[in-house]
Specification:
Distance between the termini: 18 Å
Number of strands: 0
Largest sheet: none
Order of helices and strands: HHHHH
Radius of gyration: 15 Å
Strand content: under 5%
Number of helices: 5
């Protein structure tokens, strides 16, 4: 399995698990562990190997400069959320926001991430969505 394939699988798994965990409540042990481990795996891949892709040549100006930093912030929020969910599932709690508040913030950030990539794909036509889809042609 390539790094890209693993990242795509984790990307969509984390999204599905996040929505299921918010719907079921963070007290659901299996979903908590699955989300936490998938989130930490995705964050770990980014920490060890770096971000998968950059802003693309059609993204210019401030958005181009902000792109890698916003992605790093999104990964930091994912890692923090995953760690908070795992520690809560293990019977401890991290200081700071509750796991549920972190999950809601992560969902909001993920929605903005998705909207931004829809804009990139439709307005800039830079293939942002094509690179993230589970099935890649060509």
């Amino acid at each position: 399995m390539t790094r890209r394939t693993l990242t795509v699988i984790l990307h969509w798994s984390v999204l599905c698990l996040l929505m299921l965990l918010l719907a079921a409540g963070s007290s659901h042990a299996v979903l908590s562990w699955a989300f936490g481990l998938a989130g930490l795996a995705m964050t770990g891949l980014a920490l060890v190997f770096g971000l998968m892709n950059g802003p693309g040549p059609k993204l210019t100006g401030g958005l181009r400069a902000a792109h890698p930093w916003v992605h790093r912030a999104l990964y930091a929020l994912l890692g923090w959320s995953a760690l908070a969910v795992l520690t809560a599932a293990a019977g401890n709690a991290l200081p700071g926001p509750s796991p549920r508040n972190l999950l809601v913030a992560l969902l909001g950030a993920g929605l903005l991430h998705g909207i931004f990539n829809l804009w990139r794909s439709t307005t800039l036509n830079d293939g942002a969505l094509r690179r993230m889809l589970p099935v890649r042609k060509g």
